[in-house]
């Protein structure tokens, strides 16, 4: 396969010389669709965090018999986690990593 | 069926029924399962027959198989890095299964198995278990440091840790809801506008003229749904890769 690799490399060099290849963009994130798509994604993040929070609180309460205190607490945690998810959605991942 | 009693019945398309007569009924083999098997068969056939020629200059089927392989391969390596190659079979299977489910559902008389949250949550749960197990195996106890970022003040721990745990647990939920909601919304819209065509078409002399409007909307929607079907499979695969990146590198 050395032959093929050499061909690929020369082709790439030739293409770069002619300016046919666009400079590699950061393929970091999700496809940024329409405004509706962005809104929908943010909504899903909030709703799913709330579902997890509420479900965790409800089951913990039923298990420990402390209704409604853990439910209320986990609801708040779920809301904060939802906001955090949306914040992470709009923070460029590569910047946030380093 | 919806137009006969002049109502819009957009949700009956998601109802499960058994196929294959009494045998299917006795084991609960639904049309959803049948379409899953069909999708698995089609994917296997695409790869096996596509690659059976092994030509240097690929034919149509081979280039389809190769481009789908390379698409997912680039996605996984681009997101997870070189060490992500071992997860390639998993992500490829997941991507093709979701893609074929979405695409098959657009054919007439077909059933969209990705429009059931039980299916999408099942897939998302597999991803969730995998990323957790991978992170635990690679990092051991350090995995739990994920829930408390270094450098944060210690007195914030009672707030940060539950929030991070909820955020981590919400991953499979958001992954499954996104796919499920997109597929359901698309199919409901198609059904609603298709019912409009039938209802308006039966409205006397002007009916067929007016019915052209929802028909044209439906034609545009079908094209849009093909895009959504591909995009949602892509989003599912890329989010899986992002989560795998987090599990492998544990930033």
From TrEMBL, chain A:
Superkingdom, taxonomy of origin: Bacteria
Source species: Falsiroseomonas selenitidurans
Protein name: AtpZ/AtpI family protein
Source taxonomy: Bacteria, Pseudomonadati, Pseudomonadota, Alphaproteobacteria, Acetobacterales
Keywords assigned by UniProt, alphabetized: Membrane, Transmembrane, Transmembrane helix
Region of interest (Disordered), residue spans: 1-33
Chain ranges passing through the membrane: 42-60, 66-90
Pfam families hit by this protein: ATPase_gene1 (PF09527)
Automatic annotation (TrEMBL), chain B:
NCBIfam families per the UniProt record, alphabetical: ATP_synt_6_or_A, PRK05815.2-4
HAMAP family the UniProt entry points to: ATP_synth_a_bact
Membrane topology of this protein: Multi-pass membrane protein
Cellular localisation: Cell membrane; Membrane
Residue stretches spanning the membrane: 36-57, 87-111, 117-140, 152-170, 190-212, 219-244
Family per record: Belongs to the ATPase A chain family.
Gene3D superfamilies: ATP synthase, F0 complex, subunit A
Purpose: Key component of the proton channel; it plays a direct role in the translocation of protons across the membrane.
Protein name: ATP synthase subunit a
Keyword annotations of the record: ATP synthesis, Cell membrane, CF(0), Hydrogen ion transport, Ion transport, Membrane, Transmembrane, Transmembrane helix, Transport
Lineage: Bacteria, Pseudomonadati, Pseudomonadota, Alphaproteobacteria, Acetobacterales
Organism: Falsiroseomonas selenitidurans
Pfam families given in the database record: ATP-synt_A (PF00119)
CDD domains reported in the protein's UniProt record: ATP-synt_Fo_a_6
Major localization class: membrane
């Amino acid at each position: 396969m050395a032959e093929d690799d050499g061909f690929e490399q020369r082709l790439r060099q030739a293409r770069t010389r002619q300016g046919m290849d666009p400079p590699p963009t950061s393929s970091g994130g999700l496809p940024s669709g329409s405004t509706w798509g962005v809104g929908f994604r943010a909504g899903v993040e909030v709703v799913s965090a709330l579902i997890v929070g509420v479900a965790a609180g409800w089951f913990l309460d039923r298990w420990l018999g402390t209704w409604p205190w853990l439910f209320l607490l986990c609801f708040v945690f779920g809301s904060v986690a939802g906001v955090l998810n949306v914040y992470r959605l709009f923070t460029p991942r590569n910047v946030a990593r380093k | 069926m919806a137009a006969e009693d002049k109502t819009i019945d957009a949700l009956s398309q998601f109802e499960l029924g058994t196929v294959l007569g009494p045998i299917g009924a006795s084991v609960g083999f639904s049309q959803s399962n049948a379409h899953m098997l069909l999708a698995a068969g089609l994917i296997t056939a695409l790869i096996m027959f596509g690659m059976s020629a092994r030509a240097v200059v690929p034919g149509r089927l081979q280039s389809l198989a190769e481009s789908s392989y390379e698409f997912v391969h680039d996605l996984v390596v681009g997101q997870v890095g070189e060490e992500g190659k071992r997860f390639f079979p998993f992500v490829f299977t997941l991507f093709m299964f979701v893609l074929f489910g979405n695409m098959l559902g657009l054919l007439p008389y077909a059933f969209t198995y990705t429009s059931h949250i039980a299916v999408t949550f099942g897939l998302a749960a597999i991803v969730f278990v995998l990323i957790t197990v991978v992170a635990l195996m690679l990092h051991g106890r350090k995995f739990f440091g994920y829930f408390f970022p270094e450098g944060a003040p210690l007195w914030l721990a009672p707030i940060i840790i539950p929030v991070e745990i909820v955020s981590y647990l919400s991953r499979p939920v958001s992954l499954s809801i996104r796919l499920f909601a997109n597929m359901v919304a698309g199919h409901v819209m198609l059904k609603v506008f298709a019912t409009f065509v039938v209802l308006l078409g039966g409205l006397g002399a002007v009916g067929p003229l007016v019915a052209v409007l929802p028909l044209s909307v439906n034609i545009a929607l079908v094209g849009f749904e093909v895009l959504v079907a591909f995009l949602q499979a892509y989003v599912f695969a890329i989010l899986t890769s992002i989560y795998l990146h987090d599990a492998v590198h544990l930033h």
